[in-house]
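Supplementary notes for students who missed Thursday's class. We covered one full example, reproduced here. Read the sequence, then the structure, then the short commentary at the end.
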Amino acid sequence: MSSYCKIRFPLSDVTLGKHLTMIAFLGTGLLGSNFVKALIKKGHQVQVWNRTPARAKVLETIGARAFDQPSEAVKGADRIHLTLSDDQAVDSVLEKASKNFEPGVIIIDHTTTSASGAARRTAHWKELGFVYIHAPVFMGPVNALESTGVMLISGDTEIIKKIEPELSAMTGRLINFGIDTNKAAGMKLLGNLFLMSLTAGLADVLALAKSLSIPSSDVEALFSDWNPGSMAPARLKRILTNQFNEPSWELKMARKDARLMMEATEGHAALNIIPAIAKEMDRWIEKGHANDDWTVIAKDSI
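Structure (token representation):
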């Protein structure tokens, strides 16, 4: 059974008591600025700060209040959102802002950070009497503007319950990964790793197509009619069963195909990932798995 639950809520304006929440938003790049625009459209008061002041200042034209210092932007805020670059930036900005934190303020960090950093910050700010919770997103700027996409969260059950309505109004789907304060951060990294691998794989596909004089428009047509992504759950399930002796694609045959790909591109284009995959296939063939399903190359990762 899955260890997390999927939470779906209708989009709606969110109020706390009799007033709309006062929100501070620290970090107004492409993602943050569109979050701010969506919040203002819903009627919220939003105070903003960005390391490059002009990116915050421009949001005053739609009703935000821009400040030169993060400590000024958080004055009076019930909720503080962050979309920054990394752990170091989050730590630095929160430290600067903290002198004006309101009692009971909730800090919600959407930055992609290390899992250990998310856990450490949660404990650190709790010790100082404040709530910090990590809620990274699989959302681009358009998603932030339209309140669609996926937001991840994990941590204190009561805190999550309190802020679920506010967060669900910012995204199409909120996924709660339970009580571990570093779980959402870890899951975000897993997702990003897959996206990076996917892009590298597509680069190899286009390189092979170029070498074979196949137009990129034909590649696009192929993936419009055939969706290999639909195979991912079944492929993962096969790997997790740790049973590779009933192959649907033998390792030796997959290795042959990798050889054909590398031969076709030799002298024409560089492949990113297939040579590394072929090397791993060779290692498992040498270990006696030539007739097993090719997914056996993932065995040591289970």
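Commentary. Residues 1-18 have pLDDT under 50 and may be disordered. Residues 5-180 form a domain with the Rossmann fold fold (CATH 3.40.50.720). If anything here is unclear, bring it to office hours.
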